[in-house]
Amino acid sequence: MKQLLAVVALLFSSYSPAIAQTSREPDPLATRRGWEVGGQAAHYHYEEPDFAKLIGNRGGVVGAYTFPPRWNRVFFRVDGRASYGLLTYQGSGTRNNVPDSIFETRVVAGLDFFPGSRVSLSPYFGLGYRYLYNDSRGYTQSGGQTFAGYRRYSNYLYLPLGLTVRIGIEDGWVLVPTVEADVFLQGWQVTKLSDTGLGYTDVTNRQDKGVGHRVSLMFEKNRWTFGVWAHYWNIKDSEVQPIGLGRAGLEPANWTRESGIEFRYRF
């Protein structure tokens, strides 16, 4: 019996460091695992140069899930956001309170590197989809003329390529800057020209050229994250498609700038 107890004691002593290691708190410099939910507020500016603008404030919700580790330092994350604003249209006249919604989802994979005791580097890549709905139905006046608005559905498919840096600062705080290039794959613009009542048909224009990027500067401590961020898109002219009545149309070159603040809570 004494020999059996000695063997059990030896096994327990050999496994206890491993148990302590697996039960310790997560490394604050590693990519955070689990669920995150939060909110954001932003200022939005969309512009088709020399033609039209949509400007205003918007609010939204964000969420993400980062899977538990299966391989050392590798992470997989699914995130999304929904944003809504009542914007001001400036172009063929001026109109306020134009409903505008954005829904976006992404899947990314990355790897944590630890070059020092107070810093980590986490490059990542993935696939993203951005959907925008804008409802400009109604009428505006400009130069004595009346112009009819319509609904627009915007779809972007892109590859996010980014780098997150985590820097340990005082009292458990972590500074988290992120830079990302968004490689534009393709866009589809669905324009409901039938809303104008002028005899035009609805049209779908494909976009093949564009570029995007995003940056953020966040602060993390325990379960909370907050900070500032900015998104930017620059999309070129679409292909030309017939719109009825012997005419053709395209989605003109445009750029979008969106910047704001955000907070998240991790479960």
Task: Identify low-pLDDT runs.
Answer: 1-5, 7-23
Helical content class:
under 10%
Main beta sheet:
10 strands, antiparallel, barrel
H/E order of the elements?
HEEEEEEEEEEEEEEEE
Question: What shape does the CA trace take?
Answer: elongated
Radius of gyration: 25 Å
Beta fraction:
over 45%
Overall mean confidence score, pLDDT: 90
Tell me the number of helical segments per DSSP (H or I, 4 or more residues long): 1
Q: How many individual β-strands? A: 16
| Strand line-up of the largest beta sheet | 1-2-3-4-6-9-10-12-13-16
Computed structural class: mainly beta
Euclidean distance between termini CA atoms: 46 Å
Comma- or semicolon-separated keywords:
two-stranded antiparallel ribbon; ten-stranded antiparallel β-barrel; 267 residues; mainly beta; 16 strands; disordered N terminus
Explain what this protein looks like in three dimensions.
This protein is mainly beta and 267 residues long. The protein contains one helix and 16 strands. The longest helix is centred in the N-terminal third of the chain and has 22 residues, at 2-23. The strands form three sheets. The chain has a ten-stranded antiparallel barrel with strand order 1-2-3-4-6-9-10-12-13-16.
